[in-house]
Write a structure and sequence with these properties.
81 residues; 0% helix; globular
């Protein structure tokens, strides 16, 4: 994993990550609402105690991604391994 600063207690709303790379690192206790992760590469990212609401994860890459106590509510997850 890259040595990026941890993102803690942040809210991300309506961000289109399909057009850009999600910064690698640790996301702790963050909330993602109506975010588009379709076709994103979420490899080498740790999501700890994060909540995802109404997000699109279609065709996302999860290589060496940690989802620790993550919650998904009404999210779209087509073609996800």
């Amino acid at each position: 994993m890259m040595d990026n600063a941890a993102q803690e207690n942040r809210t991300y709303t309506r961000i289109d990550y399909s057009e850009k790379k999600v910064p690698a690192g640790v996301y702790d206790n963050c909330l993602f609402v109506n975010c588009n992760f379709s076709k994103s590469d979420l490899s080498y990212i740790d999501f700890v105690d994060c909540t995802f609401k109404d997000c699109d994860f279609s065709m996302v890459k999860f290589n060496d991604t940690a989802l620790k106590n993550a919650t998904f509510s009404a999210c779209k997850m087509l073609g996800v391994d």
